[in-house]
Specification:
This protein has 6 helices and 16 strands.
C-alpha cells in the first residue's frame, strides 16, 4: 500500500527543521548503504548523532505520534531511527534498489523493514527532479510532495530517487516494523478502519458499526504480532 500522509510537520516544525539544517554537517550517504545499494546511491546524509539530525528526528517522531492515519496504516511496533538526506549538485540521485529486510539500531535491536517512509522537508518548487519512484505490480508511481507531507510504501518495493537537476531535495526517511507483517492484511485493516470512521461520522454509533469494530479487532488479534 502506497499512501500519502499530509501535514506530519507543521509550518512551525518546518521552520525549526530548516534552522537546524543551517549547520548541517553533511557526509557521504553511501557509508550507510549495503554493498549493492552503495553502487547506485549518490547523496548526502547527516551523521546519526549530530545535533541537527536529533532535532529533526524529534519533530518527525512527534508528528507521526499525533497522526491517526499513520498509526492506522502502519500499525507500528518498532521504528528505525529516522535519518536525514540531501540530494543536490554532484550527489543528486539514488538508483533502483530494495532496502535491506532488517536494520540494526545502535543498541543492537533489530527492526524488520515492513514499511518505508519518507517525510519531505522542503517544497517541490525548490528543486527540479528528485521524484521518489516506487514500483509495484501496477507499474511505477512517482511521488513528490509538499514540505511536511509524508509517503509510506511497502519495504519490499523496488524504488529510486530521480536525479535532482536544480536546487536541493531534503527529506527524512526511516523504516517501521509493523505489528502486521503482511502488506495485504494491513491494507484490509486500514480500509476497514477508515470506512468505520466514515460511518460513525455519518450515522453515529450503531449496532452495525459496533459489530464491524469487533470484526476489525478480531482480524487484528489474528494477524498482529506484538
Amino acid at each position: 500500500m502506497l499512501l500519502t500522509l499530509p501535514d506530519i510537520l507543521s509550518q512551525e516544525d518546518l521552520r525549526k527543521v530548516h534552522q537546524a539544517l543551517t549547520k548541517a554537517p553533511w557526509t557521504d550517504g553511501g557509508e550507510s548503504a549495503g554493498t549493492q545499494a552503495r553502487a547506485v546511491k549518490n547523496n548526502l546524509q547527516l551523521p546519526h548523532d549530530c545535533a541537527a539530525a536529533q532535532t529533526i528526528r524529534a519533530h518527525v517522531l512527534r508528528g507521526l505520534d499525533s497522526s491517526p492515519r499513520f498509526f492506522s496504516a502502519v500499525l507500528p511496533l518498532k521504528v528505525f531511527t529516522p535519518r536525514i538526506n540531501r540530494y543536490a549538485g554532484e550527489t543528486n540521485a539514488y538508483g533502483n534498489h530494495i532496502d535491506n529486510a532488517v536494520r540494526v539500531l545502535p543498541g543492537g535491536q533489530r527492526v524488520r523493514t515492513d514499511v518505508s517512509c519518507t517525510v519531505f522537508l522542503n517544497d517541490p518548487t525548490d528543486y527540479d527532479g528528485g521524484e521518489l519512484v516506487v514500483a509495484d505490480t501496477y507499474g511505477e508511481h512517482s511521488v513528490k510532495l509538499p514540505a511536511g507531507h509524508a509517503v509510506i510504501y511497502p519495504g519490499t518495493s523496488l524504488h529510486q530517487v530521480k536525479p535532482v537537476t536544480r536546487g536541493e531535495r531534503l527529506a527524512c526517511f526511516f523504516w517501521v516494523q509493523s505489528m502486521v507483517r503482511s502488506d495485504e492484511h494491513r491494507r484490509i485493516l486500514f480500509d476497514l478502519d477508515m470506512n468505520l470512521l466514515a460511518l460513525r461520522q455519518r450515522h453515529g454509533e450503531t449496532a452495525e458499526s459496533t459489530a464491524l469494530t469487533g470484526t476489525y479487532h478480531n482480524l487484528l488479534r489474528q494477524w498482529a504480532d506484538t
